């Protein structure tokens, strides 16, 4: 760690603390992610090993760059390129005015899908996509970060834990207990993120459709919502509240529209039977007919 000078403490995450630091060899400002090594007998946490191994394999302009790895004083530091703003804080700064504008929404949406496309093309599931894990550089480019929950996947699909992804961005098959899932879990999260500002062109629809459907996005590809509505689409406070919020908007699924749903571990025959609502009306801040057309493109 003698090559880095910590300048200030950033934020405290689930798996460690992030610092702003300076590389004394180059003068470059970097981000240091300190990994907690509380259980010394178990060594480096599996989340850190997973994040390191996957990031070392990836090289894409929409994926945060891992620059170095340092181990000192029973602590592990991951050195990343420095990006001091995430999408959540960016959207909060925009406020309740006219939002980010169509050009920025199109740009971020394209870059998010491009980063996810790269991951899926290299058989990597992120599994924790949310605005806080999407970083923005000084040139206004969006990059995927925090791969602590990411996993490599293959064919046939293996069994995974269902306790992934921040609740508001968790796909319905995961909420219903499925342990065999694929790229759809990320695409659902993507759909819940994009759209927190007003948009009024069809360019974004064309670009996102071109990218996502090339990823074999299934019914779990969801309407692009949070940047359009400027609010989380499904802000549940528990797993059952989250799944019911989804059902109230999209309708309670059955075997006709979702073959196999009744075989999922946490599906209950006694679930309330809701009919699908008008999605365009639900996302009140979308302009003209864009919101409804765009959402239905992904749902129907």
From TrEMBL:
Top-level EC class as recorded in UniProt: transferase
InterPro entries registered for this protein in UniProt: CDK, Kinase-like_dom_sf, Prot_kinase_dom, Ser/Thr_kinase_AS
Pfam families reported in the protein's UniProt record: Pkinase (PF00069)
Domain Protein kinase: from-to ranges: 4-300
Alphabetical GO biological process terms: G1/S transition of mitotic cell cycle; regulation of G2/M transition of mitotic cell cycle; regulation of gene expression; signal transduction
GO MF entry, a single one: cyclin binding
This protein's UniProt keywords: ATP-binding, Kinase, Nucleotide-binding, Phosphoprotein, Serine/threonine-protein kinase, Transferase
Domain of life of the native organism: Eukaryota
Keyword Nuclease among UniProt keywords: no
EC annotation from Swiss-Prot or TrEMBL: 2.7.11.22
Gene Ontology terms: cellular component: cyclin-dependent protein kinase holoenzyme complex; cytoplasm; nucleus
Family according to the record: Belongs to the protein kinase superfamily. CMGC Ser/Thr protein kinase family. CDC2/CDKX subfamily.
Name of the protein in question: Cyclin-dependent kinase 1
Source organism phylogeny: Eukaryota, Fungi, Dikarya, Basidiomycota, Pucciniomycotina
């Amino acid at each position: 760690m003698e090559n880095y000078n910590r300048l200030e403490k950033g934020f405290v995450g689930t798996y460690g603390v992030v610092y702003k630091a300076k590389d004394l060899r180059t003068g470059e400002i970097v981000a240091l992610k300190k990994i907690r090594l509380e259980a010394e007998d178990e060594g480096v946490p599996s989340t850190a090993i997973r994040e390191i191994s996957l990031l070392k394999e990836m090289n894409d302009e929409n994926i945060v760059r891992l620059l170095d790895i340092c181990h000192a004083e029973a602590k592990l530091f991951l050195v990343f390129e420095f990006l001091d703003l995430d999408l959540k804080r960016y959207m909060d700064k925009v406020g309740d005015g006219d939002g980010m504008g169509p050009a920025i929404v199109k740009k971020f949406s394209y870059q998010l899908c491009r980063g996810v496309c790269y991951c899926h093309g290299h058989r990597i599931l992120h599994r924790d996509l949310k605005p806080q894990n999407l970083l923005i550089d000084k040139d206004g480019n969006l990059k995927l970060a925090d791969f602590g929950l990411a996993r490599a996947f293959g064919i046939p699909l293996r069994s995974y834990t269902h306790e992934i992804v921040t609740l508001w961005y968790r796909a319905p098959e995961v909420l219903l207990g499925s342990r065999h899932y694929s790229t759809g879990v990320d695409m659902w999260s993507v759909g819940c993120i994009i759209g927190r500002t007003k948009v009024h062109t069809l360019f974004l629809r064309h670009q996102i459709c071109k990218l996502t459907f090339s990823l074999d996005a299934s019914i779990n590809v969801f309407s692009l919502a949070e940047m359009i509505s400027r609010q989380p689409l499904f802000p549940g406070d528990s797993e059952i509240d989250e799944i019911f919020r989804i059902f109230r908007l999209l309708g309670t699924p059955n075997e006709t529209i979702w073959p196999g749903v009744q075989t999922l571990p946490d599906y209950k025959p006694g679930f309330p039977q809701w009919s699908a609502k008008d999605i365009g009306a639900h996302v009140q801040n979308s302009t003209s007919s864009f919101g409804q057309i765009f959402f239905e493109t992904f749902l129907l």
